[in-house]
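cron nightly-structures :: item 1 of 1
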Amino acid sequence: MKILLVDDSRTIRNIQKNTLKSLGYVDILEASDGLEALNFISKERPGLILMDWNMPNMDGIALIKKVRETDKALPIIMVTTEAEKSRVIEAVKAGVNNYVVKPFTADTLAEKIKQTLSRVTAASAT
């Protein structure tokens, strides 16, 4: 499965990429902001997106809303330092499928990916 990492921090993308590789995911694309991510998505739809909230050019919430205009089923997990309940609610309303607060462990990320993919698969089956 192809996974798109969207974060303006190269260090965070590298941490996520290494974590994903340790979990067996090797087909990984990287984008540094929402605009770059949209370009990837339009060319080659990933199976999952892990995205940050705070980025230049187009933030995570704007990206989620843009993606949801044309694709309601693409699994999206917000991976961010934004931990306040109001921010989580805002992300869910925008269309995110799951939410991970940085810093995270490999086990936490693995569980959130598993939850998200099983929910999306179950929803598409109905």
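cron nightly-structures :: done
The helical segments are 10-22, 34-43, 60-70, 85-94, 106-125.
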